[in-house]
Task: structure prediction
Amino acid sequence: MSENHKLRVSKIRNGTVIDHVHAGQALNVLAILGIDGSDGEEVSVGMNVPSDRLATKDIVKVEGRELSQDEVDVLSLIAPEATINIVREYDVVEKHRVERPDTVEGILSCPNAGCITAADEPVTSRFDVLADGVRCVYCERIVRDEIASLIEP
Ligand code: CTP
Ligand code: ZN
Result:
């Protein structure tokens, strides 16, 4: 297939391409990045596009924005195979695979209403990262499928 046939969403000038996202996870990637289209960011999304490495993949391109390490850490939880490409003046200047951290602190909130982190206490949330989800270190609640919905505003 020629490059033109492969290109589903146009190239970006400056920003981040999140590539090799598992098919079906693109909307969760947008949720993690806090993108809902309301603040005018230029974003392209490809879903179920053919991929060399995965059978099909999703891809998210965000113009004018480079991701923070916190954002990349959470992305790794739902898109463990993702490649983060930083683009400047149309060139990929940095490319790295996401790495799953052992723990994430202050990023996700525990869905257990009885958890100490849900009380009015100055406790920073902390989750251990498991092979297939995350576990609150305080109440041991495990979350697998709804991780994107736990992101603290
Ligand atoms: N990309 C883009 N805009 C640019 C440059 C690249 O949207 N100005 C996208 C490409 O379409 C591709 C991704 O960023 O989806 C990575 O680009 P590149 O490294 O050139 O592609 P590959 O070599 O195919 O990447 P990999 O080896 O990681 O699959
Ligand atoms: Zn908890």
Remarks:
- Residues 103-150 form a domain with the SH3 type barrels. fold (CATH 2.30.30.20).
- The mean pLDDT is 89.
- The radius of gyration is 17 Å.
- The first strand starts at residue 15 and ends at 22.
